[in-house]
Design brief:
By secondary structure, the chain is an alpha+beta fold. It has 12 helices and 12 strands. Keywords: ATP-binding, Coiled coil, Kinase, Nucleotide-binding, Phosphoprotein, Transferase, Two-component regulatory system.
Amino acid sequence: MPAERLFRRQLERATRPDGSIDLDQLRQLVVAWYEDSARDRERTDRAITLMAEELEGANRRLEALVENLRVQNLRFEAALDNMLQGLCLYDRADQLVVVNRRYHEILGLPPGLLQPGISHAEQLSIEQAAGLHAGRDLQEMLEARIALVDAQDGPARAEIFTEDRRRLDVAAQRLPTGGCVVTVMDVTAERAAEARAAAAGRLTSLGEMAAGLAHELKQPLTAIALAAANARRAAERGDTAAALVRLGRIADQAARGGVLIDHLRRFARGGEGADANATADVAAAVDGALTLMGGALREASIELALALSPSLPRVRGDGMALEQVLLNLLANARDALASSRGGPGGRIAITACQTLEGPVVLEVTDDGGGIPASVMDRLFQPFVTTKGPDRGTGLGLSICHGLITSLGGRIEAENGAEGAVFRITLEPAPG
């Protein structure tokens, strides 16, 4: 043992050459050894005490850190559960890491049904088993979801309808870490409010165009009256051929008036109903807007220039909404021309083409001097207008912005060489 070996060494040091033991020296050696041992024990005790205190402090700091993490986690969970959007967060392997309560509520799923660790395919399967996506092919839905998540140009968005006709806005984006985040928001009420605002805007537009529309209807009615009088005289003469020609003109003019009235009816009513897969014909929308606005432009002696590419593809969205936007832009251009000139005259140009990148660009320009710099940055905000208090509500361009956004496009304004330029960019319809 170490103590026994140490004692033997001390004993050897106290042994005289003749083999006798120097007891005084042995006593001094033993006392010194004992004092050294006592000091070593004291240093050891102090070291142990310091280590215990450090361990206790580290334990307290660790407990505080754990508590802080627990509080932060509760705050994070509370923030997630109180979001307006439903949220799903996935890791690099596209497995679910976090799903909030709002996601379950929006989709009508039982609380806690989706648990971390499942894949996109497993999630869709669980949702379908819970009553969602009835009748839809799981593989097709999975491919659509992955395509949405893997969109190359930043966040991707899509609007879908549920079986109970609610409208959901779905957004997805890859994260720098390799995972992805998907959010879902119920926009049924927002879209209904936008539809009401758009309907009010359509009726306002019709009211502002009343004089021009009356002129458009008066022309065929005048022609009908004249042709009827001529047909009567021809009949009285017994000239059946001339009477038939006049009757044919009456039929043509009646058809012309019918087309205008039917278009008025459809425009006032709007689309037949929200459809996330609706597509629109740009040329038809331009033609429809000019059907309603053409008379007002002619009365104002405004020259109209059209340059529409003959190979325009159909675009995403509702054609009547696009027509309403064009109608509003044409009315604004007419008013801007009248204000800048103090009377009739001016030029409006409508151009449309498909870019090499794919989107369709539709532009409405005028030579009315442009948009004042004071309102350019706020042009699409509600109640912003350059007209006097007796004209307009300041909601037209705000409604236009909402309609174009709902079509999945964007609308921008700038000043060109002679006047305002409104540029609408729309995505081509699939296929």
